[in-house]
Input
Amino acid sequence: MITKEKRTQLIATSLVVLSLLACVYFILIRPQQRKLGVFAEKKNAANQKLKDINETKRVSATIESELAQVSAQLAAQEKNMASGDEYVWMLSTIRQFKLAYKVEIPQYSTIVIGENSLIPKFPYKQATMTISGTAYYHELGRFVSDLENRFPQMRVLNLDVQPASNPAPGEFEKLTFKMDVVALIKSRQ
Output
């Protein structure tokens, strides 16, 4: 059996050892654990940033290829835009295009070149030419539709359609029309 004096010494020694262990834990170990926690958070943030950078690199390659593709499409579309003498270009384009349709266009106005009013803040100018003539309803509809589909840089505006005055015999269904054809022109720089 342990004597009372030895038991008291054992309890005192145990308390001192526990106090020393608590001091070591609170003074040395706990601050190190906090620092390790901060480092773990920084590591996780750095890993997330690395993942974001890798994702951005992966996406940027895709975006770069899409940009090259869209730039090539834009260059192809710009080749179809009015060039040189805009009046001659529009006149010859419309005359050549109308050959496939039963549309008569005897009047072509001079063109008006100005800033683009179709799409704001667009880097192209526009040329507007007023044309008028006669056609049957369905032929005129096909002509306008096919013109805008074949030449996406051209639009038909202000289409005015009326029955033909003094039609020839057998042409009572013919219409007279007047329309503005607007074409984009690449700005000269």
User: Anything to note?
Assistant: The chain has two domains: 1-79, 86-186. The helical segments are 4-79, 86-98, 137-150.
